[in-house]
């Protein structure tokens, strides 16, 4: 039985703190939302409650890094990035500090918290921080691998995720290498490159397509958006000639732009390339199913778009 990702996040923090005495956890009044209250009780000297002051929290994390600590910072993705971007960029990145940021409720997974809490731009912002790592979590094993990698990799590491439960894609975190994509379904006709919660819908869409046509669809979980697995992207673009990216994020600045840039730089000639995701829109209130459909990233909407792509010879 899979667990909510907020529980996995808290468990990983506990595990890392048990293994390493330099781990520090910082929260912005969201302990109950992300299950870190247990950490605070178990490791009171390794926990700081910074209040609803995210920019200050990043500054504190930078100072802790400067004296040899490894800070893990959490807030909702909108607050963990755009609200304190200057501090991340300067106090963290420019100053050469080691800061690990968990941005929860990524994209439409903010659901009824609504448009003000719905980050569609966080991947784009964090990609622009020099040498940052950006991971979009698709299942609990990706989250585990990303957090372990973040502890060991000095610099700015950003992990975006839902707080809720998602179906398992992998058997173990050992199936995950940060910086390398995973081919979950092989195919010859079309390549879908997805990240985060969109991987599950991409797999469902691929099944719909393969059950209704003679096409075969490759589905890649590109959990690490930066650094991008250029080798895998190029290999499957050359193999199928048709590439569709799908992301729970603005199509400007996210996974789609990262893939397009690499393909263009590599000189890969494609029959078709398309980006599915949020298109010049803000967030809104709604259920997860409603929001995925509204922004065109549900399995049915993805499959319908793919049918139109395949029809265009």
Question: How do the SSEs run, as a string of H and E?
Answer: HEHHEHEHHEHEHEEEHEEHEHEHH
Uncertain runs with pLDDT below 50, 5 residues or more? none
Count, helices = 13
Distance between the termini: 43 Å
Anisotropy-based shape: globular
Computed CA radius of gyration, to the nearest angstrom? 19 Å
Major β-sheet, in short?
7 strands, mixed
Secondary-structure-derived class: alpha/beta
Strand content: 15-25%
Helix content: 40-55%
Strand order of the largest sheet: 2-1-3-4-6-5-10
Oligomer: single chain
* Integer average pLDDT: 96
Count the beta strands.
Answer: 12
Question: What are its keywords?
Answer:
313 residues; alpha/beta; 7-stranded mixed β-sheet; 5-stranded mixed β-sheet; 12 strands
How is this structure best described in words?
- 42% of the residues lie in helices and 20% in strands.
- The chain contains 13 helices and twelve strands.
- The protein has helices spanning 5-19, 31-34, 37-42, 54-66, 77-81, 85-94, 122-127, 140-152, 198-212, 230-240, 255-266, 288-294, 299-311; strands spanning 23-27, 47-49, 70-76, 99-104, 133-136, 156-161, 182-185, 190-194, 217-221, 224-226, 242-250, 272-278.
- The strands form two sheets. The chain has a seven-stranded mixed sheet, with helices on both faces. The protein has a five-stranded mixed sheet with strand order 7-9-8-11-12, sandwiched between helices.
- Strand 5, helix 8 and strand 6 (156-161) form a beta-alpha-beta unit.
- It starts with a helix and ends with a helix.
- The mean pLDDT is 96.
């Amino acid at each position: 039985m899979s667990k909510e990702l907020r529980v996995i996040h808290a468990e990983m923090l506990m595990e890392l703190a048990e293994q390493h005495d330099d781990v520090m956890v910082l929260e912005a009044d969201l302990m109950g939302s992300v299950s870190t209250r247990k950490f605070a009780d178990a490791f009171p000297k390794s926990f700081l409650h910074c209040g609803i002051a995210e920019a200050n929290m990043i500054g504190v994390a930078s100072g802790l890094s400067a004296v040899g600590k490894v800070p893990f910072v959490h807030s909702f993705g909108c607050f963990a990035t755009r609200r304190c971007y200057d501090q991340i960029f300067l106090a963290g990145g420019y100053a050469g500090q080691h800061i690990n940021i968990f941005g929860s409720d990524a994209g439409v997974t903010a659901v009824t918290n609504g448009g003000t809490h719905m980050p569609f731009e966080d991947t784009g912002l964090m990609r622009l921080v020099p040498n940052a790592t950006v991971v979009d979590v698709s299942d609990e094993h990706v989250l585990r691998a990303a957090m372990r990698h973040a502890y060991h990799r000095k610099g700015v590491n950003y992990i975006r995720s839902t707080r809720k439960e998602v179906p398992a894609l992998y058997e173990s975190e050992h199936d995950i290498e940060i910086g390398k994509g995973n081919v979950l379904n092989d195919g010859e006709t079309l390549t879908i490159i997805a990240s985060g919660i969109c991987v599950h819908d991409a797999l469902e869409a691929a099944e719909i397509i393969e059950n209704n046509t003679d096409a075969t669809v490759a589905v890649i979980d590109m959990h690490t958006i930066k650094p991008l697995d250029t080798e895998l992207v190029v290999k499957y673009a050359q193999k199928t000639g048709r590439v569709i990216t799908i992301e729970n994020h603005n199509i400007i600045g996210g996974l789609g732009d990262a893939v397009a840039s690499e393909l263009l730089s590599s000189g890969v000639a494609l029959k078709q390339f398309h980006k599915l995701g949020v298109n010049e829109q803000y967030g809104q209130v709604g259920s997860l199913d409603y929001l995925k459909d509204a922004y065109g990233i549900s399995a049915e909407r993805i499959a319908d778009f793919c049918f139109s792509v395949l029809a265009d010879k």
